[in-house]
Write a structure and sequence with these properties.
The protein has 14 helices and nine strands. By secondary structure, it is an alpha/beta fold. It has two domains: about 5-165, NAD(P)-binding Rossmann-like Domain (Rossmann fold, 3-Layer(aba) Sandwich); about 170-290, N-(1-d-carboxylethyl)-l-norvaline Dehydrogenase, domain 2 (Orthogonal Bundle), CATH 1.10.1040.10. The strands form two sheets. A six-stranded parallel beta sheet has the order 3-2-1-4-5-6, sandwiched between helices. It is globular, with a radius of gyration of 20 Å. About 45% of the residues are buried. Bound molecules: NADP nicotinamide-adenine-dinucleotide phosphate (NAP).
Length: about 300
């Protein structure tokens, strides 16, 4: 008999991931802080829980995908949180992006009560969550990774067991350095293309298949030249990840020059009230410096 599955956090990412668990035929119980966001999942066949503790009481494997470290701590350790309802032997899988150190502390608290834990942050954007093509980077014990694998396969395409608890989050921070530094390169390149009077669509078409091609260029570069700054991933949440990178880099004594530059460029956009826009709005910070607008 398959295990009972629960999903907490039905935001831009969580809603697509929970839908894909349902589509794969698993019985899914859901909880979201803003209850109305559960409606589409309930229509698709999910069951509603009244709190994270209630969800944990009904489930063997519990996924979380909420915003930041304190939010994961709140839904897992808080009053009416997962730990208040979970039975010994249950498995909690956190798919949010949060601090690797806080992740290890959380896993230790769950272990004291006989509850297993994996960190399994994701990459691939809202599109990857909706299509079930996410990259999932998993930290924890191999036996629990095998237990969660059928669910990971419903949500993602590239599933990598990268190491022990917390290592999934550390790899996700590596991913985020690559994402934002790539977006800085995409932004600078598009600014240059605009100043050169080039056809921006043809320019993207010409370079996307070569050595300069990337997911950020093809997806977010295309959106940027159409001036579609709706968020797949908001600047505010991106800044949370860059804060995690800069804190971890400081702890490890390693320079993070490009990441700190991008962090400060995003800071200017947050100050201008654009924190709710997508992370590809980074191009607007360069446009302001250059006095040039790209595309449109
Ligand atoms: P989002 O759309 O802002 O959704 C956030 C979710 O977390 C919502 O369900 C929200 O509930 C819930 N939440 C936040 N704080 C909470 C708290 N204290 N208690 C209970 N629920 C809380 O964010 P998202 O884009 O889905 O991102 C979710 C996680 O995935 C983040 O860690 C993010 O870094 C990571 N991620 C995102 C992307 C992306 O492209 N979007 C890609 C990879 C990883 P409400 O509905 O009540 O607000």
């Amino acid at each position: 008999m398959s295990e009972r599955v629960g999903f907490i956090g039905l935001g831009i990412m969580g809603r697509g991931m929970a839908h894909n668990l349902l589509k794969a035929g698993f019985a899914v119980t859901v909880w979201n802080r803003t209850a109305a966001r559960m409606d589409a999942l309930l229509q698709a066949g999910a069951t509603a829980a009244s709190s994270p503790a209630d969800l944990a009481r009904r489930c063997d494997v519990i996924f979380t995908c909420v915003s930041d470290t304190p939010d994961v701590e709140a839904v897992v350790l808080g009053e009416d949180g997962v730990l208040a309802g979970a039975q010994a032997g249950a498995l909690v899988v956190d798919m949010s992006t949060i601090s690797p150190e806080a992740t290890r502390a959380l896993a230790a608290k769950l272990a004291e009560r006989g509850v297993y834990f994996l960190d399994a942050p994701v990459s691939g954007g809202s599109e990857g969550a909706a299509r079930g093509t996410l990259s999932i980077m998993v930290g924890g014990e191999a036996e629990q990774v095998a237990r969660a694998m059928p669910y990971f396969q419903a949500m993602g395409k590239t599933i990598t067991h990268v190491g022990k608890v917390g290592d999934g989050q550390a790899v996700k921070l590596v991913n985020q350095i690559l994402v934002v530094v790539t977006m800085l390169g995409v932004s600078e390149a598009l600014l240059f293309a605009q100043a050169s009077g080039l056809d921006l669509e043809k320019t993207l078409q010409a370079v996307a298949g070569g050595a300069a091609g990337s997911w950020m260029l093809s997806n977010r570069g295309t959106q940027a030249i159409a001036r579609d700054f709706r968020p797949g991933f908001t600047i505010d949440l991106q800044q949370k990840d860059l804060r995690l990178v800069l804190e971890a880099a400081d702890q490890r004594g390693v320079p993070a020059i490009a990441t700190s530059l991008v962090f400060n460029l995003y800071r200017t956009l947050q100050q201008a009230g654009l924190g709710h826009e997508g992370n590809h709005a980074l191009i607007k910070a360069l446009e302001r410096l250059a006095g040039i607008t790209v595309g449109g």
